[in-house]
Amino acid sequence: MSTLFPALTGDPSPDRPALRFGERSLGYADLAAVSATVADRVRAVQRVAVWATPTLETAVGVVGVLLVGAAAVPLNPRSGEKELGHILRDSRPEIVLAGPGDELPGALAGIERYDVDVRPGPGGGRVSDDRYDALDPALVVYTSGTTGPPKGAVIPRRALAATLDALADAWQWTGDDVLVHGLPLFHVHGLVLGILGPLRRGGAVRHLGRFTTGGVARELNDGATMLFGVPTMYHRVAEALQDEPALVKGLTAARLLVSGSAALPVHDHERIAAATGRRVIERYGMTETLMNTSVRADGEARAGTVGVPLPGVELRLVAEDGATPITSYDGETVGEVQVRGDNLFTEYLNRPDATAAAFTDDGWFRTGDMAVREGDGYVRIVGRKATDLIKSGGYKIGAGEIENALLEHPGVREAAVTGEPDADLGERIVAWVVASDPQAPPTLDELAEQVARRLAPHKRPRVLRLLDALPRNDMGKILKRALGDHV
User: Fold this and answer.
1) Model confidence pTM above 0.70
2) What is the CATH number of domain 6-198?
3) Domain AMP-dependent synthetase/ligase: where (predicted)?
4) In the CATH scheme, what architecture does the domain 389-486 have?
5) Which has the minimum average pLDDT: 6-15, 161-170, 342-351?
6) Domain coordinates in residue numbering, the chain
7) Could you give the angle at the alpha carbon of 198 between the alpha carbons of 269 and 246, nearest 5°?
8) Separation between Cα atoms, residue 107 and residue 85, nearest integer Å
9) Which has the closest alpha carbon to 283: 299, 264, 259, 303?
10) What would the pLDDT profile of 355-394 be if each residue is shown by its tens digit?
């Protein structure tokens, strides 16, 4: 297999910027040297834990691990003791990489620690990773564990290359691009797309450390060309546009704005487009598959959709039996997304049962996501099969489109939709809403009318529950299973 990072092998340019975190930065020549030092240290190791803070040390550590053909296990610094203990017992890393000042929890006390030094020394070695097999593990990324203990998805080197090259095609991504983001680095979005993506292209990344609209404005007005974020970030951007002219200027100048990890509400799409003339594009992926679809840079940025399958990715929707393909794409028929391609993980670590259950006999991965597809191939995700498919009055309804309709109401700041048992309908639709003005929240009748008018009468909520805030994880995704605690 060819190298994952062509710009780091051979004779890297000493003047070409690679990574910047705050005031600290590394060019390609210095990155090659310091990552080679990490690679030498972990050369005989199979799996390496990385204390994945949003820092230069994390980025250098992961690159060093990949250069020497080992597998990096990114650890979320906010993981609870029980979850972290499970991940360490399951992955059995032989060493943990951290920053010199990081305080590690007791669960890591028995594992050898290596502090990543990002200060380039004289000379510096070079490491080429072109001798490793395409199916060799590159990352072990743990799922969120919403249906049980987190599972370690083993992501091969082939999947990294396939996804990043497919995105380069879809987004016209080149070494001239400069990416800005403020995402965590223990997840596919922030680490693979946000750090490894620019490095594979030979471009640069500027990490904000902590996301702020001021930081976005500063970097986009200082030459950054692309912004990656999650809906929570873009919502804050949309809210700030009126009061921050520098933000409007920076977004207007950006080449590409990308949102992922959850659906971006249509209202935020429209506010950003109206103020800047730029459309945010969405893409769809998950830990096990990396990226599956995206709106293309040269395509129509259609709010509410995640675009078309990426080059090399096969995608189909299947009926409720999990096997019968849906062949008529009408934008209404809901089916489960299944995918095949080089972008897929190879297995759940130590879980052959779960791995076998995740794939069909002919190699399609069952994503558990529900979607509809337009006649021109555009995909719209409507929710998760386990939590977002509501069967009401004989209809199969995706919660996601109802949530988007609710968010268009001016009285709704946040919204989630679930189903609950109903003797007549089978399930009734429940709207969980955070009001824009808690003193004057919207009524159920108002919201039901809005949904019925925008979608269809059978998709209107029958129950309204008002909350002060919706429970979310570190990536901004709503934790629907936790909503039951508020009943």
Assistant:
1) yes
2) 3.40.50.12780
3) 13-349
4) 2-Layer Sandwich (3.30)
5) 6-15
6) 6-198, 389-486
7) 45
8) 6
9) 259
10) 999 999 999 999 999 999 999 999 999 887 777 778 786 6
